[in-house]
Each structure stands twice: as structure tokens, then as C-alpha cells.
Amino acid sequence: SMRGLCRAWRESWIRRRTGTREARFPAPRRPGLTPPRENTIRTVDNHRSTRTGGCIMRRRQILKATGAVLAAPILAQLARPFDALAKTDQVVIMTWGGLWGDAMRDNVDTAYQKATGIKVVQDRSASPVERITKLKVSLDNQTVDLFQLADGLVPLAVKQGVAEKLNRASPRMPNVRNMIPAFWNDYWVPQIFSITGIIYNTKQVKNPPTGWADLWRPEFKGRIVLPEISHSIGSYIIPIGALAQGKSPKDEAAGFEMLKKMADLRPIWAKDTDTMMNAMRTEDAVIGILYKSQTYTVKGWNTPVEWVYPKEGGIAFTSGTCIAKNTKNLEAAEEYLNVTMDPEVQPFAAKIYNYGGTNKDTLARLSPELQERVKFPQDQLDRLVKLDLEFMGDHRAAWVERWNKVVAGS
Fold first, then answer.
1. Is 287 helix (H, G, I), strand (E, B) or coil?
2. Which CATH superfamily is domain 88-192+318-373 in?
3. 50, 118, 124, 149: which is closest to 339 by C-alpha?
4. Three-state SS across 58-107?
5. Overall pTM surpassing 0.90 (yes/no)
6. Distance between CA atoms of residues 45 and 39, nearest Å
């Protein structure tokens, strides 16, 4: 017992202090019991022990046994906080507001809370670039668990160290492992995809555009809508400008030369995609850059628009979710990623936005009409322009500075 161990240690200490080789103490007497014979504790040189009528223990044995007894409750206390971390009551995700945020709340967030009992709190306060900045600042005490980005900004998030590397083998992410292989990324789970091209008003534009270069036609002055530099695809105007000149999309000089010409046409610079669509809806703009998927949304508002796959090549667009670096709720965040990839949940994006899903089994859950909307002909897929997103991420700071000077100067 603990009492016996303590008594043995006390006796050993007394002997060392007094030089006594043997110490006798009467054993404790319990009422109603015959007193047992005395316990004798004897110490022997070279740390060996003998027993005469009782329990003999070496000093290091006593220390070892006592330490184990005392350590048990301490270890139990230390274990409790880790259990608590695994059982959070909410996760925080940084995402877009407007139609997308509402759709995520009503579909993904609701399904996640139903499956896990964990509440989802959306932070819609920041642009995609601002999300990365905020996450960088809070790395030492992370308050965010997940954040959403389009593909163009994922390399920047990875370079800034704000995205957690994914554990592909996690038992909480079986749906993620069923992703279409071409979309796999070590730090980001793409949820939806489409192609970026040209949207135009069929009543206002008598000569339909056929390629990126048509965006620079003088008759569109003041009636072009484009994403500003803080938008997920805001920097795409640089490679698009280069493509319009027949150059490589990495030709910065050609791209910025065309940006200056575009700035002179006084386009409508939109901070988010909803603003781009609404500019077409109100006919403040008659032409612009937009994903094919959301052209159907504008059509649904009874706006006479069509979408064109540019002859220079379309640009793939994917959007998805990262786990925030140093999240306090890693397991809960992995479960959230799994729901974004659920083939029973992903169809909401096709029904509302006409986006394709990235799970192999999502397409089969769509109606024949929606399947046609989210699919692309093979020749369009073959002619996609593959942007060097890492190159663009590395040059982003310089591009933003130059973009601001050009646009402000106009």
C-alpha cells in the first residue's frame, strides 16, 4: 500500500542518518484483529536486501514504485485537455459571402452539423488574399479552422505557410480519396470546377466575341466588367492580355502593356463574382470575364447572355477548402472536408451554380440537363491554357503593385 511504502522509505532514511543497520517498528494494529508480528526492514551493503518476517525493499525500488503511484493521477490530468480538443462544439471557416456563402451554409454546413453535432461559423469578412494575411498573423494562436480559396491563390497560401498539409490516409476523409485524380492537391481540397471564358449580352453586342482579344474592342469602353486584383482570378487579366497578343501567358511585359490599354477603356472593376454577374444583369456591362457555370445563373435572371470559349484557349477554374495551419480542431476540420466531397452534397453547386463536382460519383447524381451543363467537350478540355500558378504566386506582390499603379493612373 502507499502507507507501507512511505513507512519503509522513512525507516530507510532514519537508518542512513543514525547509522543503524536495523530498525523495528510495530505494525499498525486494527481494532478487533490479532496484532501481527513485527515487520523488520533490514538494509544490506551493495544494495541487496534480505527479508526477516516482513517486506524488504531497496531504496530505488521504493522510489520507482512511489513515482509510479504519484505519476498516475498527474498523467490522467494531462490527458484531459487533449480529449477536450477533439470534442469541439464549433469550427470557423473563412469563405465568401453572398450567394456562395448562403449556399454553403444551407447545404454543406447543415449536412456537417447534422452528421457531427458541430456548429459551423462562417467568417465572410475578408477577400481571399486578406484571408491568407489574417491566417499568417494568427499562426501562433489560430482561431480559424478552415478557409476557402480558388486555385489561383493556393500556391500563395502554401508559400505563406497558412495551409495544413493533408493526411490523405485519414479515416475521416474517405470521400476525399474518391476525388477525380487530376484535381488532387496536398494542401487543398477542390470542391467545384468550371472554365473561365467570355460572357456577353446578345442584344447589345451585335458582333459576338470569339477570343480574349475582343475584350479590347473600343466599342466596349465603359461597359466591360472584370475582376479586380483582389478577386480570386483578378491577376488572370495579365496572362489573358498576353494571350490576346499571341504571346505566352507568362509574358509579363505583354500582359501589362495590354492592362494599360484595358485601363483606358474604363472597365467596371468588380471585387467579387456576384458584382460581375449583377453588372451583366443590369446591363451596366455588356461583356466581361466569367465562368461558364455562372453564365447560367445570369441567364436564369432572364438576361440575354451567352458564353464563349475563347479561341486562344479557356482557363480552368476550381475552388475548394484548406485546413488552417495550427488549427485547434484538426479532426473536426478533416470531417468538414469530407462533407464538401460527399457525392450526396456536392450536387447543390450544380443545381444553383452549374458547377461540376470533383468526386467521381457526383456526376451520376445529377439530372441529364445538369450533366450537360457541367460537362465540357473534349476539344475544349484539350485546348485549356495551363497557367503557371506558382509563378503567378511568386510574382503576385509585384503584380499587385503594378496593377494598382496602372489602374489608379488611368
1. strand
2. Periplasmic binding protein-like II (3.40.190.10)
3. 118
4. CHHHHHHHHHHHHHHHHHHHHHHHHHHHCCCCEEEEECCCHHHHHHHHHH
5. no
6. 20
Dihedral angle, C-alpha 318, 319, 320, 326, nearest 10 ° = 110
Q: How many CB atoms lie within 10 A of CB 398?
A: 10
Quick one: 194-316+400-409 is in which CATH superfamily? Periplasmic binding protein-like II (3.40.190.10)
Torsion of CA 151, 162, 344, 106, to 10 degrees: -100
- Going residue by residue through the chain, which has 410 residues, state the pLDDT in tens, using 9 for 90 and above: 555 555 655 565 555 555 544 444 444 444 444 444 444 333 334 434 333 444 444 444 544 444 444 444 434 433 333 333 357 999 999 999 999 999 999 999 999 999 999 999 999 999 999 999 999 999 999 999 999 999 999 999 999 999 999 999 999 999 999 999 999 999 999 999 999 999 999 999 999 999 999 999 999 999 999 999 999 999 999 999 999 999 999 999 999 999 999 999 999 999 999 999 999 999 999 999 999 999 999 999 999 999 999 999 999 999 999 999 999 999 999 999 999 999 999 999 999 999 999 999 999 999 999 999 999 999 999 999 999 999 999 999 999 999 999 998 87
Copy the grid coordinates of residue 352. Answer: 444553383
Closest to 160 in 3D by CA, of 125, 192, 120, 128? 128
CA proximity to 291, closest of 314, 320, 275:
314
- The position carrying cell 475521416 is 172
